[in-house]
Amino acid sequence: MGSVVTVSHITASSSAVVRASGLTKRYGDFTAVDGIDFEVTPGESFGFLGPNGAGKSTTMSMIGGVSTRSGGELSVMGLDPDKEGPRVRAHLGVVPQQDNLDEEIKVRDNLYVYGRYFGLSRSYLKPKMEELLDFAQLTDKAGERVDALSGGMKRRLTIARSLINEPKILLLDEPTTGLDPQARHILWDRLFRLKEQGTTLLVTTHFMDEAEQLCDRLIVVDAGRIMAEGSPSQLIRDYSTREVLEVRFGSAQNRAAAQTLEGLGDRIEILADRVLVYAHDGEAALEQVIARGLNPVSSLVRRSSLEDVFLRLTGRSLVD
């Protein structure tokens, strides 16, 4: 793939680069972030998994020093973002939910102008821009205007731009929302390469597959509170079964069918369009469904995911 991006490493690997204790954010009577605690270690890919409105983006804004906290403690690289915002931001790369590129100038110029905001020299920026364009697979698009790029290319350019100052921590707010599956996988590959080089990643997402792909550890957030914390595999192991049987009987029949399935597997969840049977062996569970005289319209056996963890913890899906 050519050259790789050079990133700075943190020598004090035993200390957290982001630490929150009782972190709270209120807007009038509304509490967006409700007293959460977490720590992020150097080189870790740390995730905030939850639905829209859970408080994920608000937490990222406080880490980036864009939004002041209402209560609790927060430190980034040992600094208080409320008091030392500029120093904190010097260590950060930020990829916002919505791309905020300058659409009317060329791809290469977006990197150059952003680098100049940081006071970086032309002699530094010239090779750095080429390095980042190669990393983002945009070398052949360098002379084109941004508005000619696809959504996936714009997202990769936004990430490349965020790396211009060699940040120690990269904040990614819903990095693949709106992208097609191929563009998502390309972006995941770019982020995985950064992680391999030791960049600390903080990722908010409501996509369970993204959290499983990118995150070493994550917190499940709902209504501003932490519901659970751990690695994706640990959370699935603690809060779900190895497999899930999905059966559909028709919207009007699902609830009645679920009553007949009572006692099957570890537990049963009734959703609007299907019934979920949580069991160690999904195929054996399906045989039991048929043995009880039920004939589902469709059936699917799959492995448990973080979606199932969230459903177990909150009683609803990540995307309602």
From TrEMBL:
Pfam families: ABC_tran. Its main location: membrane. GO terms for molecular function: ATP binding; ATP hydrolysis activity. InterPro entries: AAA+_ATPase (IPR003593), ABC_transporter-like_ATP-bd (IPR003439), ABC_transporter-like_CS (IPR017871), ABC_transporter_ATP-binding (IPR050763), P-loop_NTPase (IPR027417). It comes from the Bacteria. It is a peripheral membrane protein. The keyword Ribosomal protein does not apply. Residues 18-248 form the ABC transporter domain. It is found in: Cell membrane. One of its GO terms (cellular component) is plasma membrane. Keywords: Antibiotic resistance, ATP-binding, Cell membrane, Membrane, Nucleotide-binding, Translocase, Transport. One of its GO terms (biological process) is response to antibiotic. SMART domains: AAA (SM00382). Belongs to the ABC transporter superfamily. This is ATP-binding cassette domain-containing protein. It comes from Galactobacter caseinivorans.
